[in-house]
Amino acid sequence: MTESTYDHPLLRKRDGHHARVTYEELFFDLVYVFAVTQLSHMLLVHLTPGGAFETLILWFAVWLGWQYMCWVTNWFDPETPPIRALVFATMLIGLVMAAAIPDAFGPRGIVFALAYVTMQVGRTVYIVSRLGRAHPLAPNYRRILGWVSIAGVLWIAGGLAHDGARVACWLAAVACEYVAPMFGFALPGLGRSSTREWTIEGGHLTERCQLFVIVALGEAVLATGATFSTGTQWSATIICAFVGTFAGSLAMWWLYFGTSSKDATTTITRSGDPGRIGAYFHYVHAILVAGIIVSAVGNDLVLAHPARTASLADAIVLVAGPAIYLAGSAVFKKIVYSVIPFSHVAATLVLIALVAASGFVGLLAMSWATTAVLFGASLWESRVERQCIAARAVPHSRASH
What is the pTM of this model? Predict the structure, then answer.
């Protein structure tokens, strides 16, 4: 279809230039700073396998809410009054959802579910009503509406249920919304969407994902500073823990922004099927940010008890965050460069080996060890990147002679 086929007064104007991220979108992301903080605090309070699983379900919901809005603002212009109103209304509902997170598996389960379903279904109904029946994007959004409605029933049923029934319903709801795009939101009578119909603006999508990583890393840094500030005595051990936890966040930043994030924009904008790559990006960034959230919990543990000998549970938490982040980074680089970097595999194996040290070292030493592993992977990747740049420059230099 030609670009003119997609004309609509609310759509972004595609002129071949990178679509900028608007102030409305940046303002919207502030809700997710709060949501990520709520999730990390929930995991810290419920640091058990069951608590971790429940936090994971809620994280998937939080990410879905952000992801679907990201696709809306990729197509539709947030600076037009109708879409701006949609962004701000969704922001308010998202704030209620985030506020309910700590008790989502308790008395506020129905509040969380209703807020989430209102956000997902309400946004999609609004877009369908604005597009009308004839617009090429309308069939895709009607299919999306079908799937978020099916998931909505499960979310509300879970909110009314208790304990294991709530977990089962919400897990099924998450599966509906994550799996549906893989099959083009296929529904009887409505057909299915093709990723080639998802005419996204690649540069905008990658920048939105990058900004969310910044949001998550920023929350981790803020949590580190807040925990450090509440300490009654800033001993050398506490200061060392403070520096170490900040260094861990810095290593994560370097591993993402210092070695691959810029190339991601090129990959998606040059792709013949940017919709498919864009969907991959969203799945991968859910893993990356999950690693940051778990790492923030580990930072809190280290700052609260730096001299404590690491238990097996402590070691798993301190290792899990960086390991999940490395897994997400490895898949991300696979999408961008078509290869899984050996540095990430080696670093993950070293992290797993560190778990065996639990019971012999303190939390502070374990924290610095995981940070060292992340820095090692970042240095390795930076070296590989410099070699690749040098290799590309040599033929160009020879040609100029």
Answer: 0.88
